[in-house]
Amino acid sequence: DFSVAAYVKETMTGISDIPQILQDAMTQLQQNNLPEAMALLESVLEMAPDEFDALHILGVLKHKCGQFSQAETLIRQAISINNDFPDAHYNLAKVLQDQSQQEDAAVSYKNALARDPNMDVAHYNLGLIYLEQKNWQDALASLQQAVRIQADDPDYLFNLGNVYVQLEQLDKAIECYQKLVSRHPSQHIAYNNLGIAYRQRGQLEPA
């Protein structure tokens, strides 16, 4: 769920080995060799402590290893160097959300969306925070945006349908669930929620 796309600087560092080491780290990452990738990124930071890509990607990998505090520190340091890279704000939000810092995570998702309004996963995860808070109207707005950008994602449709149920907009909930099961017939929980919505609307036969 994380984004590790490298931010390409307009001017590269003067240390000639760093671009190649970063490339080697990405190669190791693509091969799922996390310890090797992390070691290479750490070697970059020994030479250039403010290297954005190394800070950002190492922060993501630290999170994958369950080292939340280090991950947060590294990604925040990366953001202090380049505040305009939306993926860094998104990844910081993921770290914060996984530490149950929901309010701070919501701020970081909004920061990501301010820089890339079409980041559907940020809209979706922000919607989940609002849903957990039972803030139905804001959850609705966020999930609608996620579905607008990526209409076929089953999780987006499912949770949007759930919000419509909470708002007692059963017609729209049923529409979401119907789209979901027509596109993803194996989603048994969606069939269950669709049946409940029909029942709540008094349509027992389709329920």
Largest sheet: none
Structural class: mainly alpha
Mean pLDDT: 90
What's the number of helices? 11
Distance between the termini: 35 Å
Please report which band the strand proportion falls in: under 5%, 5-15%, 15-25%, 25-35%, 35-45% or over 45%.
under 5%
Low-confidence stretches: 5-14
Count of DSSP strands: 0
Tell me what the structure shows.
The chain has helices at residues 18-30, 34-47, 52-64, 68-81, 86-98, 102-115, 120-132, 136-149, 154-166, 170-183, 188-200. It is mainly alpha-helical and 207 residues long. Helix 10 runs antiparallel to helix 11. It is elongated. The model is unreliable at 5-14 (pLDDT under 50).
What is this structure's SSE topology?
Elements (H helix, E strand, L loop, with lengths): L17 H13 L3 H14 L4 H13 L3 H14 L4 H13 L3 H14 L4 H13 L3 H14 L4 H13 L3 H14 L4 H13 L7
Helix pairs in contact: 1-2, 2-3, 3-4, 4-5, 5-6, 6-7, 7-8, 8-9, 9-10, 10-11
